[in-house]
Amino acid sequence: MASSGLYFTNITPDNGAVRDLNKLIFKDVLSVDRIGRILNVFPRVFNGDKLDVIGEFGLLGKADTGCSPTYATDTIATTEKTWDIASWLIAEKICWADLEGTLVKYALNTGTDIADLDGNVYLENIVLPRLELAIYKMLMRLAFFADKSADTTANAGVLKVGTDKTYFTLTDGIWKQIYSIVSGDAARRVTIAANAEDTIAEQMNNIQSQAVDVLNDLINGAKPALRQAEDQVIYLTQSLADALEVQLLSTYYGSDLHWQDLFGGIREGRYRGIKLRVMPIWDEIIQTYEGTATAYNLPHRAIYTTERNLALGINGASEFDGVDVFFDRTTQLNHIIARDKMGALVVANDLIQVAY
Q1: What is the Cα–Cα distance from 76 to 172, expressed in whole angstroms?
Q2: Crossing angle, helix 211-220 and helix 238-251, to 10 degrees?
Q3: Are 49 and 82 in contact, with CB atoms under 8 Å apart?
Q4: N or C: which end of the chain has fewer CB within 10 A?
Q5: Is the Cβ–Cβ distance between 282 and 301 less than 8 Å?
Protein backbone atom coordinates (compact mmCIF):
# COMPACT_ATOMS: atom_id res chain seq x y z
CA MET A 1 0.00 0.00 0.00
CA ALA A 2 1.25 3.48 -0.82
CA SER A 3 0.70 6.13 1.81
CA SER A 4 0.22 9.85 1.38
CA GLY A 5 3.02 12.10 2.54
CA LEU A 6 6.72 12.51 1.82
CA TYR A 7 8.39 10.58 -1.00
CA PHE A 8 10.95 8.84 1.18
CA THR A 9 12.96 7.17 -1.57
CA ASN A 10 15.28 10.18 -1.66
CA ILE A 11 15.76 10.34 2.13
CA THR A 12 18.10 7.93 3.92
CA PRO A 13 16.28 6.66 7.03
CA ASP A 14 19.23 6.13 9.36
CA ASN A 15 22.38 7.94 8.30
CA GLY A 16 22.88 9.75 11.58
CA ALA A 17 22.32 13.13 9.93
CA VAL A 18 18.62 13.72 10.48
CA ARG A 19 16.65 12.41 13.45
CA ASP A 20 14.41 15.36 14.20
CA LEU A 21 11.63 15.64 11.65
CA ASN A 22 11.15 19.27 12.61
CA LYS A 23 14.52 20.07 11.01
CA LEU A 24 13.41 19.14 7.52
CA ILE A 25 13.45 22.28 5.38
CA PHE A 26 10.48 23.00 3.18
CA LYS A 27 10.36 24.93 -0.03
CA ASP A 28 8.42 28.14 0.48
CA VAL A 29 5.35 28.44 -1.71
CA LEU A 30 2.33 30.62 -1.01
CA SER A 31 1.88 31.79 2.57
CA VAL A 32 -1.23 30.16 3.97
CA ASP A 33 -2.77 33.32 5.38
CA ARG A 34 -2.19 35.70 2.48
CA ILE A 35 -4.59 34.66 -0.27
CA GLY A 36 -6.76 37.60 0.75
CA ARG A 37 -4.00 39.86 -0.60
CA ILE A 38 -4.64 38.47 -4.08
CA LEU A 39 -8.37 37.84 -4.21
CA ASN A 40 -11.33 39.55 -2.56
CA VAL A 41 -12.52 36.69 -0.33
CA PHE A 42 -16.24 36.29 0.39
CA PRO A 43 -16.93 33.70 3.13
CA ARG A 44 -20.23 31.88 3.63
CA VAL A 45 -21.18 31.96 -0.06
CA PHE A 46 -23.56 29.34 -1.47
CA ASN A 47 -24.16 28.21 -5.03
CA GLY A 48 -26.68 30.47 -6.75
CA ASP A 49 -26.12 33.40 -4.38
CA LYS A 50 -26.20 36.79 -6.07
CA LEU A 51 -23.45 39.37 -6.01
CA ASP A 52 -24.92 42.81 -6.69
CA VAL A 53 -22.68 45.60 -7.95
CA ILE A 54 -23.80 49.21 -7.45
CA GLY A 55 -22.49 51.62 -10.06
CA GLU A 56 -22.93 55.38 -10.43
CA PHE A 57 -25.55 57.91 -11.49
CA GLY A 58 -25.56 58.86 -15.15
CA LEU A 59 -25.57 62.49 -16.28
CA LEU A 60 -26.81 64.98 -13.68
CA GLY A 61 -27.04 68.74 -13.70
CA LYS A 62 -28.94 70.95 -16.14
CA ALA A 63 -29.43 74.72 -16.43
CA ASP A 64 -31.26 76.23 -13.47
CA THR A 65 -34.82 77.21 -14.51
CA GLY A 66 -35.66 79.05 -11.31
CA CYS A 67 -38.82 78.19 -9.39
CA SER A 68 -40.77 74.97 -9.88
CA PRO A 69 -37.88 72.94 -11.28
CA THR A 70 -38.48 69.71 -13.12
CA TYR A 71 -37.53 66.78 -10.93
CA ALA A 72 -35.84 63.87 -12.67
CA THR A 73 -35.96 60.22 -11.62
CA ASP A 74 -32.39 59.21 -12.44
CA THR A 75 -31.25 55.85 -11.12
CA ILE A 76 -27.94 54.37 -10.12
CA ALA A 77 -26.69 51.66 -12.47
CA THR A 78 -26.58 48.15 -11.01
CA THR A 79 -25.42 44.78 -12.24
CA GLU A 80 -25.85 41.34 -10.76
CA LYS A 81 -23.75 38.20 -11.01
CA THR A 82 -24.38 34.70 -9.76
CA TRP A 83 -21.92 32.63 -7.76
CA ASP A 84 -21.10 29.21 -9.20
CA ILE A 85 -19.91 27.43 -6.08
CA ALA A 86 -18.74 23.81 -6.31
CA SER A 87 -17.39 21.30 -3.79
CA TRP A 88 -13.80 20.17 -3.68
CA LEU A 89 -12.45 17.26 -1.65
CA ILE A 90 -9.04 16.05 -0.56
CA ALA A 91 -8.93 12.54 0.92
CA GLU A 92 -5.62 10.92 1.86
CA LYS A 93 -4.61 7.84 3.86
CA ILE A 94 -1.45 6.79 5.69
CA CYS A 95 -0.46 3.30 6.81
CA TRP A 96 2.08 3.01 9.60
CA ALA A 97 3.70 -0.03 7.93
CA ASP A 98 4.81 2.16 5.01
CA LEU A 99 6.72 4.38 7.43
CA GLU A 100 8.68 1.76 9.42
CA GLY A 101 11.67 1.69 7.10
CA THR A 102 11.83 5.45 6.80
CA LEU A 103 12.97 8.42 8.80
CA VAL A 104 9.55 8.50 10.46
CA LYS A 105 10.27 5.29 12.39
CA TYR A 106 11.80 7.47 15.11
CA ALA A 107 8.48 9.24 15.60
CA LEU A 108 6.15 6.23 15.60
CA ASN A 109 4.41 5.03 18.72
CA THR A 110 5.29 1.59 20.03
CA GLY A 111 3.36 -1.59 20.72
CA THR A 112 -0.34 -1.74 19.93
CA ASP A 113 -0.49 2.03 19.32
CA ILE A 114 2.16 2.00 16.60
CA ALA A 115 -0.44 2.41 13.85
CA ASP A 116 -2.05 5.51 15.35
CA LEU A 117 -0.38 8.70 14.11
CA ASP A 118 -2.69 11.04 16.01
CA GLY A 119 -0.51 13.66 17.67
CA ASN A 120 2.54 12.32 15.82
CA VAL A 121 5.19 14.90 14.86
CA TYR A 122 5.32 13.57 11.29
CA LEU A 123 1.62 14.08 10.75
CA GLU A 124 1.23 17.36 12.61
CA ASN A 125 4.49 19.12 11.77
CA ILE A 126 5.25 17.71 8.32
CA VAL A 127 2.20 16.43 6.44
CA LEU A 128 -0.54 18.79 7.62
CA PRO A 129 1.33 22.09 7.08
CA ARG A 130 2.27 20.98 3.57
CA LEU A 131 -1.30 19.89 2.93
CA GLU A 132 -2.50 23.31 4.02
CA LEU A 133 -0.13 24.95 1.55
CA ALA A 134 -1.27 22.57 -1.18
CA ILE A 135 -4.89 23.56 -0.53
CA TYR A 136 -4.01 27.20 -1.03
CA LYS A 137 -2.23 26.44 -4.29
CA MET A 138 -5.29 24.45 -5.31
CA LEU A 139 -7.53 27.44 -4.60
CA MET A 140 -5.30 29.64 -6.73
CA ARG A 141 -5.36 27.10 -9.57
CA LEU A 142 -9.12 26.75 -9.50
CA ALA A 143 -9.85 30.44 -8.94
CA PHE A 144 -7.84 31.51 -11.98
CA PHE A 145 -7.57 28.50 -14.31
CA ALA A 146 -10.64 26.34 -13.70
CA ASP A 147 -12.78 25.60 -16.75
CA LYS A 148 -15.78 23.29 -16.73
CA SER A 149 -15.03 22.32 -20.32
CA ALA A 150 -11.28 21.92 -19.83
CA ASP A 151 -9.60 19.23 -21.92
CA THR A 152 -6.22 18.32 -23.35
CA THR A 153 -4.79 19.54 -26.63
CA ALA A 154 -5.56 16.10 -28.07
CA ASN A 155 -9.25 16.99 -27.66
CA ALA A 156 -9.08 20.64 -28.76
CA GLY A 157 -8.37 21.93 -25.25
CA VAL A 158 -5.32 23.73 -23.84
CA LEU A 159 -4.15 21.25 -21.19
CA LYS A 160 -1.04 19.24 -21.92
CA VAL A 161 -1.61 15.67 -23.01
CA GLY A 162 -1.48 13.44 -19.93
CA THR A 163 -2.93 16.09 -17.60
CA ASP A 164 -5.91 14.90 -15.55
CA LYS A 165 -8.52 17.45 -16.61
CA THR A 166 -10.67 16.78 -13.54
CA TYR A 167 -8.23 18.93 -11.56
CA PHE A 168 -9.50 21.89 -13.62
CA THR A 169 -13.20 21.23 -14.31
CA LEU A 170 -14.67 22.09 -10.90
CA THR A 171 -15.99 25.50 -11.95
CA ASP A 172 -15.24 28.35 -14.36
CA GLY A 173 -12.38 30.46 -13.07
CA ILE A 174 -11.30 34.03 -13.69
CA TRP A 175 -9.43 33.41 -16.95
CA LYS A 176 -12.42 31.52 -18.42
CA GLN A 177 -14.65 34.46 -17.48
CA ILE A 178 -12.16 36.91 -18.98
CA TYR A 179 -12.19 35.04 -22.29
CA SER A 180 -15.97 35.38 -22.28
CA ILE A 181 -15.76 39.11 -21.53
CA VAL A 182 -13.28 39.61 -24.38
CA SER A 183 -15.45 37.61 -26.80
CA GLY A 184 -18.19 40.19 -26.23
CA ASP A 185 -15.89 43.21 -26.26
CA ALA A 186 -12.62 42.72 -28.14
CA ALA A 187 -11.38 46.16 -27.04
CA ARG A 188 -10.83 44.73 -23.57
CA ARG A 189 -7.85 42.72 -24.85
CA VAL A 190 -4.29 43.57 -25.82
CA THR A 191 -2.78 40.81 -27.95
CA ILE A 192 0.72 39.71 -26.98
CA ALA A 193 2.45 38.67 -30.19
CA ALA A 194 5.08 36.55 -28.43
CA ASN A 195 2.38 34.19 -27.18
CA ALA A 196 1.68 33.07 -30.77
CA GLU A 197 5.24 31.88 -31.45
CA ASP A 198 5.75 28.21 -32.32
CA THR A 199 8.40 27.32 -29.74
CA ILE A 200 8.98 27.99 -26.06
CA ALA A 201 12.33 29.60 -26.85
CA GLU A 202 10.72 32.04 -29.30
CA GLN A 203 7.90 32.82 -26.86
CA MET A 204 10.36 33.65 -24.10
CA ASN A 205 12.87 35.51 -26.26
CA ASN A 206 10.47 37.66 -28.26
CA ILE A 207 8.61 39.00 -25.22
CA GLN A 208 11.81 40.82 -24.24
CA SER A 209 11.20 43.51 -26.87
CA GLN A 210 7.42 43.70 -26.48
CA ALA A 211 6.81 44.11 -22.75
CA VAL A 212 6.81 47.93 -22.56
CA ASP A 213 4.37 48.26 -25.46
CA VAL A 214 2.12 45.58 -23.94
CA LEU A 215 1.90 47.38 -20.59
CA ASN A 216 1.38 50.77 -22.22
CA ASP A 217 -1.36 49.46 -24.50
CA LEU A 218 -2.95 47.67 -21.54
CA ILE A 219 -3.17 50.89 -19.53
CA ASN A 220 -4.07 53.20 -22.41
CA GLY A 221 -6.87 50.91 -23.64
CA ALA A 222 -8.68 50.60 -20.32
CA LYS A 223 -12.08 52.18 -19.80
CA PRO A 224 -12.17 55.54 -17.98
CA ALA A 225 -13.94 53.88 -15.03
CA LEU A 226 -10.85 51.75 -14.42
CA ARG A 227 -8.40 54.58 -15.06
CA GLN A 228 -10.13 56.57 -12.29
CA ALA A 229 -10.36 53.76 -9.75
CA GLU A 230 -8.48 54.27 -6.50
CA ASP A 231 -7.22 50.68 -6.07
CA GLN A 232 -5.87 49.97 -9.55
CA VAL A 233 -3.57 46.98 -9.90
CA ILE A 234 -2.03 45.00 -12.73
CA TYR A 235 -1.54 41.28 -12.11
CA LEU A 236 1.02 39.80 -14.47
CA THR A 237 3.04 36.67 -15.09
CA GLN A 238 6.62 36.49 -13.90
CA SER A 239 7.71 36.17 -17.53
CA LEU A 240 6.08 39.46 -18.51
CA ALA A 241 7.38 41.22 -15.41
CA ASP A 242 10.93 40.01 -16.08
CA ALA A 243 10.75 41.14 -19.70
CA LEU A 244 9.40 44.54 -18.65
CA GLU A 245 12.22 45.04 -16.19
CA VAL A 246 14.91 43.94 -18.63
CA GLN A 247 13.55 46.19 -21.38
CA LEU A 248 13.34 49.18 -19.06
CA LEU A 249 16.86 48.68 -17.80
CA SER A 250 18.36 48.19 -21.26
CA THR A 251 16.36 50.75 -23.25
CA TYR A 252 15.13 53.43 -20.88
CA TYR A 253 18.34 54.51 -19.23
CA GLY A 254 18.24 52.44 -16.11
CA SER A 255 14.62 52.89 -15.06
CA ASP A 256 13.50 50.18 -12.69
CA LEU A 257 10.27 49.18 -10.99
CA HIS A 258 11.40 49.30 -7.33
CA TRP A 259 10.14 45.82 -6.48
CA GLN A 260 9.01 44.95 -2.98
CA ASP A 261 8.86 41.32 -1.88
CA LEU A 262 5.53 40.36 -0.37
CA PHE A 263 5.25 36.60 0.18
CA GLY A 264 5.60 33.31 -1.65
CA GLY A 265 7.55 34.84 -4.53
CA ILE A 266 4.91 37.52 -5.11
CA ARG A 267 6.38 40.98 -5.63
CA GLU A 268 4.93 44.43 -6.04
CA GLY A 269 6.23 47.38 -7.99
CA ARG A 270 4.83 50.38 -9.81
CA TYR A 271 4.65 51.32 -13.45
CA ARG A 272 3.19 54.66 -14.53
CA GLY A 273 1.88 55.04 -11.01
CA ILE A 274 -0.09 51.78 -11.11
CA LYS A 275 0.65 48.91 -8.75
CA LEU A 276 2.12 45.81 -10.39
CA ARG A 277 1.65 42.46 -8.69
CA VAL A 278 3.75 39.60 -10.07
CA MET A 279 2.10 36.17 -9.99
CA PRO A 280 4.74 33.44 -10.45
CA ILE A 281 2.12 30.83 -9.56
CA TRP A 282 0.48 31.64 -12.92
CA ASP A 283 3.74 30.77 -14.69
CA GLU A 284 3.99 27.54 -12.72
CA ILE A 285 0.50 26.44 -13.71
CA ILE A 286 0.79 27.52 -17.36
CA GLN A 287 4.20 25.97 -17.90
CA THR A 288 3.33 22.74 -16.10
CA TYR A 289 -0.17 22.08 -17.39
CA GLU A 290 -1.05 24.21 -20.43
CA GLY A 291 0.23 23.90 -23.98
CA THR A 292 2.12 21.30 -25.96
CA ALA A 293 5.57 19.76 -25.82
CA THR A 294 6.91 22.62 -27.95
CA ALA A 295 4.98 25.72 -26.83
CA TYR A 296 3.12 27.03 -23.80
CA ASN A 297 -0.48 28.23 -23.97
CA LEU A 298 -0.43 32.03 -23.62
CA PRO A 299 2.59 32.11 -21.26
CA HIS A 300 2.60 35.92 -20.95
CA ARG A 301 -0.53 37.42 -19.39
CA ALA A 302 -1.73 40.45 -17.45
CA ILE A 303 -4.96 41.60 -15.84
CA TYR A 304 -5.47 45.31 -15.22
CA THR A 305 -8.28 45.72 -12.72
CA THR A 306 -8.96 46.82 -9.14
CA GLU A 307 -7.99 44.99 -6.00
CA ARG A 308 -11.61 44.22 -5.13
CA ASN A 309 -12.74 43.12 -8.58
CA LEU A 310 -11.39 39.56 -8.58
CA ALA A 311 -13.42 37.63 -6.03
CA LEU A 312 -13.16 34.23 -4.38
CA GLY A 313 -16.31 32.85 -2.79
CA ILE A 314 -15.99 30.07 -0.23
CA ASN A 315 -18.58 28.15 1.72
CA GLY A 316 -16.57 28.11 4.92
CA ALA A 317 -16.22 30.84 7.50
CA SER A 318 -12.58 31.56 6.66
CA GLU A 319 -10.10 31.05 3.85
CA PHE A 320 -9.21 27.65 5.25
CA ASP A 321 -11.52 25.87 7.65
CA GLY A 322 -9.11 23.08 8.55
CA VAL A 323 -8.85 19.35 7.99
CA ASP A 324 -10.24 16.31 9.76
CA VAL A 325 -7.60 13.79 10.81
CA PHE A 326 -8.66 10.50 12.36
CA PHE A 327 -7.44 6.96 13.01
CA ASP A 328 -9.62 3.98 12.03
CA ARG A 329 -9.05 1.16 14.50
CA THR A 330 -10.67 -1.40 12.21
CA THR A 331 -8.49 -0.77 9.15
CA GLN A 332 -5.53 0.62 11.18
CA LEU A 333 -5.29 3.44 8.68
CA ASN A 334 -4.87 7.15 9.38
CA HIS A 335 -7.19 9.34 7.30
CA ILE A 336 -7.03 13.00 6.28
CA ILE A 337 -10.15 14.68 4.92
CA ALA A 338 -10.44 18.30 3.76
CA ARG A 339 -13.38 19.76 1.87
CA ASP A 340 -15.11 23.04 1.17
CA LYS A 341 -16.90 24.79 -1.66
CA MET A 342 -15.48 27.58 -3.80
CA GLY A 343 -16.02 29.70 -6.88
CA ALA A 344 -14.51 32.81 -8.45
CA LEU A 345 -16.00 35.89 -10.07
CA VAL A 346 -14.93 38.87 -12.10
CA VAL A 347 -17.21 41.31 -10.33
CA ALA A 348 -17.41 44.24 -12.78
CA ASN A 349 -16.64 43.69 -16.47
CA ASP A 350 -15.88 47.36 -17.14
CA LEU A 351 -13.09 47.23 -14.56
CA ILE A 352 -11.16 44.66 -16.60
CA GLN A 353 -8.47 45.17 -19.24
CA VAL A 354 -6.32 42.18 -20.15
CA ALA A 355 -3.27 41.21 -22.17
CA TYR A 356 -2.55 37.70 -23.44
Answers
A1: 29
A2: 110
A3: yes
A4: N
A5: yes
